[in-house]
Target: TatD family hydrolase
Amino acid sequence: MRLVDTHAHIHMPHFDNDRETIIQKFENDNMEFIINVGTDLDDSRICVELANKYKKIFASVGVHPHDSKDTDNEYLNRLKKLAVMPKVVAIGEIGLDYYRNFSPKEIQQKVFAEQLLLAKELNLPIIVHIREAFEDAYNILETIGIPEKGGVVHSFSGNTSWAIKFLKLGLLIGISGPVTYRRNHSLRETVQKIGENNILPETDCPYLPPQPVRGKRNEPVYVKYIFNQINDIIGRDVSEILIQNAVELFGVNI
Model:
């Protein structure tokens, strides 16, 4: 089975001891590509460097809501310089996170809106992080609008009603490890109701390992468990449709 991982963080310190081994695993295997996602400006620069070095890695650049408090007056200019690099395929991850509130809500909203406008200017798809902030995130997305290229609500944690609202805005729904968790009937129900044409498979590694490897560090090849779970929910093999969704959103040639 061919695979893609549309949301990974293999540049993070969790992979410092074996990053080359992890990359070789999917460079030589059936992984078509991964999107390696930045969470602040320095982080995003490293993502671009990794993407430039490896054929199957592409980069997304952006400032995570946790890090929005650390932005200065020049951050958008710096971000734009990264965003126009050849292997950058998205702006993200951007959004709102009221679960931890590492940055004040007003700052999160401002930085989210500014990056959304930049994505529209550059016509790059967006990778959106939303945690316990669905109402405010939806309002910002609806008011400003999304890029023509679209985007994804990454590692979706809402209910089916919210999923449908985001789909109507033109966003896909990112499905990660929690869909495999035994008690997460709600997310599996959402997958079944929205269907394979509206889904992107992702790991969010090193976080959110799927059930078969729960308790371990997550990594890109474990996206196979996400593919398998989605196939089981839909009732047939939809792997190629999931891959095509990713190809079309991010404009990656495979």
Summary: The longest strand covers residues 88-97.
